[in-house]
Design brief:
Aminopeptidase, globular, 9-stranded mixed beta sheet
């Protein structure tokens, strides 16, 4: 397989990314099959950070996409900036080739370079721990909606990035539309 390259998504990529997300989640049982519409809404929101919408290319063709958007972790005393990973998508023809893993690692690198300390996700309990994700409950962090505890995960991008961080995650509005 040719090497995968990564770059920041541009508006001309939106149609291709929409189709990749749609195809990637088409057969996933625990999906509402609307992730592509969530990405469209997030791009128009205050939570969107263009540099954290990343595409993976193989021979100049987009085969995957990952999006990190701004969220907050709030408690009675304070608020902490964090990111939500949602979604990561690889076209079915290119799955199980390490592209999703490479996209996640690239996203971590980009988020860290922008000064973010953590990323939260709701995802497969057997997949994300290999990248360093741990249960949010370990840090006293809760999600604002029901989700299986083993699927609610967070990663520290820097040592002590979650020191003294606890509370409830506050997602941007597009997640609830």
């Amino acid at each position: 397989m040719e090497p995968i390259t990564f770059r920041t998504e541009i508006p001309a990529d939106h149609k291709s990314v929409f189709k990749i997300i749609e195809a990637a989640f088409q057969t996933i049982e625990i999906s509402d099959h609307k992730e592509q519409f969530l990405v469209e809404r997030l791009r128009k929101s205050d939570a969107f950070i263009p540099e954290l919408s990343t595409v993976a290319e193989l021979n100049d063709v987009i085969v995957g996409h990952i999006l990190l958007t701004k969220i907050k972790i709030k408690n009675v005393n304070t608020s902490f900036d964090s990111l939500a990973l949602a979604p990561v998508s690889v076209h079915p023809d290119f799955q199980n080739k390490g592209i999703g893993s490479a996209l996640i690692k690239e996203a971590h690198k980009r988020a860290k370079a922008l000064g973010f300390q953590s990323i939260i996700l709701v995802g497969h309990a057997d997949y994300y721990p290999r990248f360093g994700y741990e249960l949010t409950s370990k840090y006293g962090i809760k999600l604002p909606f029901p989700a299986p505890e083993e699927s609610c995960m967070i990663i520290e991008l820097n040592e002590n990035g979650l020191k003294d961080v606890s509370g409830t995650v506050e997602y941007s509005k597009p997640f609830f539309e």
